[in-house]
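G.,

No rush on this.
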Amino acid sequence: MPVRSIDIFADVVSKFDKNCNAYVAKLVDAQTAGTLPVAIGPALRDFPGQWRSKFTVIPGDNLAKPLIVEIGCHTGHTICDMAEQSPEVLFVGVDITFKRVVQTAERARERGLKNIFVALANARGLEDLFTPGEVSGFVTFFPDPWLKKRHAHNRLYAPEFCATVRSQLSSDGFLWLKTDQKPYFDDACSFVQESGFHEVKSLPVLGDNDFSSFFLRRFELRGLPWYGRKWIKSVS
C-alpha cells in the first residue's frame, strides 16, 4: 500500500527533469549532497520516530529537545523567526510546494539556523511522517480556507485531522491556529475541542511569544480581521 505523505511525490523525484522545474532539481540535489536541511520522497521513510536525530548536532541532547511542526511553512519567515527565538527547540516545516520547501530551507541556511528541517509532504498524512507522541506542537497559520461551499471538504481542519494531530502529540502537546475566516475558525474550534483539547493562553514551549506571517502582515496592512487560538492536548 503506498504511503501517501511520503510517496505522493516519489515519481516526480525519481523521474524529474532539471529543465522542467528548477526547484525539483534543487531539492533532489540538495538532499543528495546534504547542502540543505530537506527531505523529499522515499527518503522520508526513515524519518518517523527519528526526526530529532536528523538535525545537525547543536548544543544539548537533541533527543530531549521539543519538536514543533509548522504545517504550511510557506517561504519560511515564521518558522525561521520561531527557530531563531527558541534555539533549544527543533522545528520541522512541512509544505507541498517545491519552491516553498526550497526557499524555507535556503532561508534557514542563510540565517544560520541549524534547528530547522523541511519536508515536502502532504499534511493530510501526518501519521506517515511522525510516530505517536513524537511531536511537541503543531503550528497552522492561515491554512487554505477553501471558501466555496462545494470545496469545504478540502479544508485541513476536520475531525479526522484533529484526531490524527492529537495522536502524534506528546502528553502536553499543543495545536496553534490562525486564520482570517471566521466560519472556518468556528468550525475548527469545535473540531479541535471535540477531539480532546482545551484552550490555553500560553504554550508550554513557546510561552506567550507571538509570531507573524506573510498572510498575517498582509491582512493587518489592509485592516482585515483575523482569528487565532491555542490548545493543549487534554489528559484522557
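When you get to it, here's the other one too:
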Amino acid sequence: MSTLSFYLTGIATLIVPLVGKLVFALIVWLVGKWAIGKIVGLLEKSKGFSHLEGTVQTFTLSFARIGLYVLLVISIIGILGVETSSIVAVLASAGVTVGLALQGALSNLAGGIMLLIFKPFKLGDYVDAAGVSGTVKEVTLFYTVIITVDNKHITVPNGTLMNANVVNYSTEDLRRVDLTFSCAKGESPARIQALMQEVMAGNDKILDEPNPPFARLSGGTNESMEFTVRAWCRNDDYWDIYFDLTQRITETLAEAGVKAPAFRVVSEGK
C-alpha cells in the first residue's frame, strides 16, 4: 500500500463515521422538531389544558417547548460523540461567567413564575406597566407580549414587569370616568352643575352605584372656573361614557350659551 493510499484510508476512516453521525443527528433533529410540535399541539388541545387560565396556558406551552428542545439538543450532542460530562465540567469551570450571562434570563424566568403565582393580570387585560400600555396577549417563559391600542407588538421581559408598578384597568367590574371642564369666571356654578347633571342623567350606561353621578366646581383661575365630572360605569362601557360625556357636555354648555375661556377637557384617568 502506497503512502497516499494509507493517508486516504486513514482520512476515510475518520470522515465516514463523522458524516454518519452528522446525518443521523440531522435526522434526529428534524424528527425531534416534528415530534415537539405534535406534543405541544396535543397538550394545547387536551381537555384539562383548556380549563387553565390563559396566562398559565401560554407559560406552560413555552416551558414545555423549551424543555423539549433542551432534551433534543442534549440527545444530538450525545449522538455526535460529545460526552455530556465534559460539557458539565466546562460549564462548572466557567460558572461565574455563565452565571453572569444567564442572570437576565434567570431573572425573567423567576419573574414569569411570580407572575403566574400572584397574577397581577391575565390574558386580555388592559394594563399600564414598565412604561407600556396595552392588552396582554401572551405570557411566555421569559417575556410577556402586550398589544398597544394602535396594534404595536411589544415584548416586555418578565423580570422587568415583576419589578414594575402594574396598573390593571380590566380587573374590576366597575370604573369611574373623571373629566374636567372649564368655563368663564362669570358663569353661575349651580347652573353649570345642573347642565352637567342633566347630561349624565340622560345616559343609561351611567350607574348610581357605588356613587351617583357627580358634577361640582373644583378649581379655577382669574379667568376661568373648572368643574369636575365623575360617573361610574361598567368597565366595558368606560370609553363609550368617556367620549359621550366629553362631547355631550361640551355641546350642552355651548347650546346653553355658556361663555369660554375654553371648553378644555382634561382626563384624570385612562
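The two ends are 86 Å apart (CA to CA). The chain has a mean pLDDT of 82.

Enjoy the weekend,
O.
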